[in-house]
Amino acid sequence: xxxxxxxxxxxxxxxxxxxxLGLNIETNWENLxxxxxxxxxxxxxxxxxxxxxxxxxxxxxFEDLAREYIRKRSxxxxxxxxxxxxxCAKAAVEKSGIDFSHVDKTxxxxxxxxxxxxxxxxxxGTTIQNAILKSMNNSMxxxxxxxxxxxxxxxxxxxxxxxxxYAIGLGFDLIQSNKADIVIVxxxxxxxxxxxxxxxxxxxxxxxxxxxxxxxxxxxxxxRDGFVIGEGAGVxxxxxxxxxxxxxxxxxxxxxxxxxxxxxxxxxxPMNDGEGMAHTMKLALxxxxxxxxxxxxxxxxxxxxxxxxxxxxxxxxxxxxxxAYQIPVSSLKxxxxxxxxxxxxxxAAITIMSMLKExxxxxxxYEKDPELDLDFVPNKARKHPITHAISNSFAFGGHNxxxxxxxxxxxx
Length: 412
Description:
Elements: E1 10-18, H1 25-33, E2 40-41, E3 54-55, H2 62-69, H3 72-76, H4 80-96, E4 108-113, H5 131-135, H6 139-148, E5 154-157, H7 163-176, E6 182-190, H8 194-202, E7 231-240, H9 241-246, E8 253-262, H10 275-287, E9 297-299, H11 306-320, E10 329-330, H12 333-336, H13 343-357, E11 359-360, E12 382-383, E13 388-395, E14 399-406
Parallel strand pairs: 4-5, 4-6, 9-10, 9-13
Antiparallel strand pairs: 1-7, 1-8, 2-3, 6-7, 8-14, 11-12, 13-14
């Protein structure tokens, strides 16, 4: 579908984030701007016999927040990760000011990006009675839809680390094609468990620099040795501009467009020299009717792995040419780890905060790699006005997504 032929604008009216750096978007923003790390030694289980013993875990006091939002019986049927998703969605809806009793619920949808629900060996309270419900990938979108009695499409999408970015793109399509007025999009994830850490260690994908934990995630740095697992949730409320204005909503950003592509190259490695990543960003700009010179910030996928960081850098240079050196590029994963299915939505939400606050978050633990010579916003946040930004998500399996975000002009 050619998005430039459609004129139904898609806007964001509410959003929230749960991560190792906080249980709401405000706390996350404050800590990210301060350059804090949420990476610590794993506490969810004893990691002593693993090569990787660190992760960015959601704070333990999340349980108190969950009790505020989730009924006891429902909570017993949800994993901790599904609870991240549900509480984050409830908070995002509150921030958007939507009263679902006053809208056509057949035109309200929920799309969540989910790799798994976290029903692993670490999950507590799983019984024969709730095992199936806890394991259902579709449960995250289903619980949200049930909460508000929404009757439109309700599903999850699984495209590894790009899952919630895909959810944003698919939600955009539902609104722009006039099949929905409101779509709750986002994702949640956690792979902080022994079995998946062992698996990723076998693939040499995870950092094994356990001490000190907060220094392990170092995107675009010369000594990077793999990603650090994070966990959490990110949720955005998408609406058509017309619908949002009619209900006098506060609009926080516009989604200009996006691109979803498949590299069809390798189950694990990206295409050489970032060809697939470059193609995705180019297509996202075309679909948004923008030129490379319109972009003022790139929220990078920036995993802290050898290949991703090298190829993402090459891809940015390929698309933005000389201008690439003028655009700040930073990675939240340096502070909150890689939140897998939740990453795209968390990063899109924080990119919107960067627009609103005219501040770009840093890439902490940065040490120069002569091969990677862009402006990675080393170690300290920076004031920087942004009109248009790209948020990238590039996943195992060759699932690529670039979301183009625009500062909303209230004086139209």
